[in-house]
Each structure stands twice: as C-alpha cells, then as structure tokens.
Amino acid sequence: MTSYLEIRRFRDDQIIWVSRNHLQLNQLHDEIIQRVISVSVKQTEEKHGSLPCPFTFFMMGSAGRFEQSVWSDQDHGIIYQQQGTEINHYFLALGKEITQGLQLAGYDYCDGDVMASNPLWCKSLSEWRQQLANWSNNSNWEGIRHLLIFIDGRSLYGDESFLEKLKIEVYQTIHKENLFHKVLNNTLYLKKGIGVLGQLLLETHGPHTGSLNIKEKALFPYVNGIRLLAIKGNIYETSTLLRLEKLSELVLPSIKRELYKQQFLKLLNFRLSLSKPDNYENSHYLPISTLSKKQKEEVKEILKNGTALYRYVRNLIEKEDD
Amino acid sequence: MDTIFLMNSLWVMVAAVLVILMIGGFILLETGSTRMKNAGHIAGKTILTFGIGSIVFWAVGYGLIFGSGNALIGFSDFFYSGYDIEGLSLSGAVFFLFQLAFAGISLTIAFGGFAERAKLGAYLVFAVLFSVIVYPPIAHWIWGGGWLAEHGKQDFAGSTVVHLTGAMAAFAATLILKPRIGKYNKDGSANNLAGHNQVFTALSVLLLWVGWFGFNAGSTVSVDGAFFGFVAVNTNLAAGAGVIAAMIISWIVMGKADVPMMLNGALAGLVAITASCAFVDTWAAVLIGFIAGFLVFYSIRFFESKRIDDPIAALSVHGVAGIWGTLSTGFFATPELATVGQPGLFYGGGLHQLGVQALGVVSSGAFAFIVSFILLTIMKAVMNGLRVTEEEEIIGLDMSEHGSYGYPEMVKTEKAIISPDPKLNA
Predict the structure, then answer these.
(1) N or C, which end of chain A has less CB nearby within 10 Å?
(2) pTM
C-alpha cells in the first residue's frame, strides 16, 4: 500500500471481520498503524532525504495498552537516537506526516495533543531523558500525568530499545523518589457508576441518555489501578491483561488477579459487542436498555470490582506511606 | 394616629419592599439558569414587565381583586388614589403596594415559561393580559372575598394565588412556544442547556429566601402578637428542609449533589410553605419543605422526559410545589392555627379541609391554565407567532430584541459553543 487512502480502504474492509474480537481487532489496528508509518517514512524521505538516524515510534493511550475499540484517537510519540537542529526538524516533519496519515486512515486527532507532531512528544533520546527527569523531579500534577501516559507507551516501529531504556529509568525514579502517592493522587478521581440504591448511574442528558459511560466509570479504575500496581511490581508490559498476569503474589494475590482479569476481559467484550461502535465517542457508552437482566448484573459486578480494586490499590499505597 | 396602625403600616411596608426585591432574585435566577446570550434581555424584560404589571394593577388589577363585586370578580376601586381602606388597620397605600408586589411576582413566574425564545412583544402584551384577566380573578376568589374564601380555602400567602397561577401560565406558554433549539435530540433524549452562572442562581435563592420573609411573614399584614415571627420561622425551616431533601434525592438517584437541583429544592420548600406557613406547626413546616424538595426533583425529570422545555423549572418549583403546599394544610393545619377553614386530616379534621384545598387547586390551576392558553393562542395568531426566528434565537435575544449583548466581550465564544454548524457561525 502506498497511500493513506488505500490503507483506509483496507481498514474499512477488514475491520468488520474482527470488530467483535478484542485480540484480532487490536492486531489489525497495529498493522494499520504500522502501514501508515511506513508510508509516512517514505513520504518524508522523499521530501527531506533519508532518515538521519534510527528512531522508534510508539503508541500510548488505549493503542499503547493494546485495548483499542473499533474507533480510537491518536496518542503517540517519537524517540530518535541523535540530537541536532536538523534532526529535530526532520523527525518533527515525520511526526506531522504520521499524524496526518493516521487521521486519513481513520484515527481522530488527540484532543490533548499527545502526538508526535507536538515537539513535547517528539524528541531525541537525551532530550527525552531530560524531559522525563523534569516530569518526575517537578512531580506536579501535569508532570505525573505525562509520566503515566508515557508509561503506557508501546513501540510499533523502529528500535524498541530506546523506549525500553527510558521506561526502566522512569520506573527507577518513581521507586527511588517514592512518587506512588503522587501517582495515586493523579488518578484518584473515580466517577461513580453505581448509586447508593445499587442502581446503575446512567447519563441523564445528551445523545447518550440512558447509557453507561464505561470509559470513565468502568475502564478507568481497572486501567489506572493495574498500571500503578505494574509500576510497583516493575512490570513493563502495557496491556492491562498482561500486567495483571505478570503481577506477583505480593502485589496482588492470585485469586484477585484472576477475578480482575475475567472482569476486565468481560468489560472489553461488552464494549465491543454492545456499544454502538459507529464512532469514537459512541464506543464509550453502553446502552443499558438493550442489555439482558443477567448482563446488567454482570456490568454492575464489573463496576463493583473496579471500585474494590481501586480501594485496594489506594490502601496499599497509603499503608506504605504511614 | 394609633400606634398599632402605624406599626402595621411600617411592617407591611418593609414586607412590600422585601417582596419587590424578590424581582431582583428572579432576575438572577432566570439569567443564571439560562445562557449568557439572553442575559441582558432577561434582566431588562423582568424590570419592564414589572413596570407594566404595576401600572395595570393600579388601573384595574386592584379593583378586580378587592373591589366590591360578586363571588367571581370585584368591580370597583379602579385607579387607586391612595385613600385608606375601610376595615383595614394599616395604611391603604401600603396595603395596595404590598398586593401590587404579589401580582408582580406572579407575572414574573409566568414569564419563566417564555425564557430564551419568546419575542419581546409577547412579553409586553401578555404582561397586560395576565395582569387583567388571569391573576385578578383567582386572587379575588381566595383573597378578595370571592367564592373560595367563603369556602374556607387556606392559602396564607399565595401558594395557589401567586405561585400556581404563575406556573400555570408558564405551562401554557412553554407548550405553545415549544422547546428551545437544541434542547431535544431526534431520539427524544434531552440535552442539558446548562445555565451560564450558578453563582447568580445561588444568590437568587438567597435573595428570594430573604424576600420570602416579606412574602409570608408580611402576609400577616399586622404586627398583632408578633405572629409574623412564627410565620418567618416556618418559612425558613421549609426552605432549609427543601434544599436538604433535593440534595439527598439527587445524590441517591444520580450519584451527585446537583447544584441547580439543590437550589430548586430550597425554592420548592419556600413555595410549598407559602400556603401553610401560618396554619401549621414547625415540625410540619420541616416536613412540608422536605417533601417539596423530593417532589421538585422528580417533577423536573418528569417534565423534561415529556419534552416540555421549562428552562427555569417554573412548572416544578412554583407549580408542583405550589400544589403540594396548598394541599399540605389539608393534612397539617392545627386547630389553634386554622383561623381560616378547619384543621387538617392529622388533627382530627377529617378530609374536609383537604377537599377544600384540592378544589381550590383544581379550579384555580385549571382557570389559570385554560385562560392563559386561550390568550396566548390568540396572541400567537394575531402577532404572527410568539417566538423569535431560529436565527434570532441562535444569536440570542440580547441581540435580536435589544441590539446589544448583556456580556458583549464573552458572547462570541459562546456562539461557537452553541452553534457547531459552520454556516450559522459564519
């Protein structure tokens, strides 16, 4: 494939077949994104000459965690080996090219501008090292938020070792400076999904009236809670399911690991099979009235377990602080 | 001159001032609960229509309510000139002003149902018609010696006369005007056209809360026995219970303490206690306010689900809580306090007073609704529609009706928010 629109057609043809299968769907997303990058690299080389040095392109957010729905927005960055004004310009141009390419291929721009077209997320290895150190040293809310986004990074193109090295350093800093409490605070806000009467709290206004916001109310507690435990246990995987699998007994007992794994997988399947995945926004909402009684109970279980996991993580961190 | 006469006059004058200041509360309530592109219009038209209401009340309203006539309407004392009124132990002019203020509040409530989409002309014409044809008959029936007064109806300060009447006119208006652009989606789900300033709304509630001491406690129209203090206590308790109830129910059902809902709870408590404040014990005042806080929550959700767009919740706060407040004396009026009518169900009065209250609510509510609906339908035909054009609604009534924005610096950004269609933004 030599053009973004061709890739888009490929996507549209293929995605229907895998849209109900979490694993295959995310493999397809990876493939599409990798194809886009190949085209972008070629285009950039045509315009600005051949690549000046090795680099890696990595996805963050749901793509980084291998947890994309049918539609997804872009979150990504670039790490390149060497530094220099020319090189900076070159990779920023590549970042812009990829960002546009992904948009043409069906991935919305990221509202928060976490994209390789933004100099903040497109840097040389040494600049990245400096930036990550700044984020952890200042350890203000925004810095920690950026660190957490970075930690979900997964290489999709180029030399993976750049990202791996940086992540090891970030983990070391978090342990050394004991930033866990700050990390916890950064992701502590939990939108309530179940009311005091045990009812599901659904949207009361807007186009999603009667639906459950599963992104904020169900996915977030699992993703954020497990990410924190993964940092604690020095696990470099990015997918929530893999992180769960690798957690040690010390961090999370195996009974709970198994439970949360099942619940999270069920949640991903609910999202794929029941939300109306006609666009990015809709895939975050579960139309509850279409669910059977049993399914509703399952959703409630997922929410309850998410809250319980959150509480567990919180206690774990706060206990250590005392 | 005798001291009691002077003291009565002074107290009711203070109360009249408090009630007229409630117009300021309504300005903040209505602007705070709506979007900034309509803020100047809403503030300005509220003052304008109070002006119109005042003149009409002076010319004919007072005479239709308090003039001598029959059980249905009064018909004398037009163009009141300031004389003292026979049988009143306070200044006639003060009494007149106090009653004028009530008529002004009822009119202001009615206009809540017009918010954000009615033409300025519709306000002007309906201000006159409401003040002549809708409000005076009901006020006469209950307060002017009409058939409901003879019947023993308890409405101390106007849960029915002022609030329900205004709310029913608002109901007719909101049905005829139809929902605002963007309020409902194609599938029938409602969007939240959030008000632009919750601080205004909260301040409005405080202003109204304090103004209500004039409204209710002032309705003693005398300082005799300092009974106004008791009435004020009941009023305050009901407001407090209303805000707490609305907070609790919104937290239970929606999982969050919704600010506009809490504020509406306080107002619902105030509206409900308005009829009963002089007839019930303090514990009953707490209960009446508490139930009003619950009712307003479900009422707002009910009207919204029926595609009835009520921007400032006038139907729920003044209508539903007004009905509940009126009925509440049928349950809670005590033998000692029921100087009008009879004790309520819980004090051995049986169902008699409840029946009287229910009849009053139904007849007054139906009259206000039907007459308003007919008047507005005629106005719609004669005035070539009551609603501004779509374009005018989108640019806002500040600009379309008055030529300048209440927030000139801010409204450009808001335009971009409310109108995602680039053609309309161009």
Answers:
(1) C
(2) 0.88
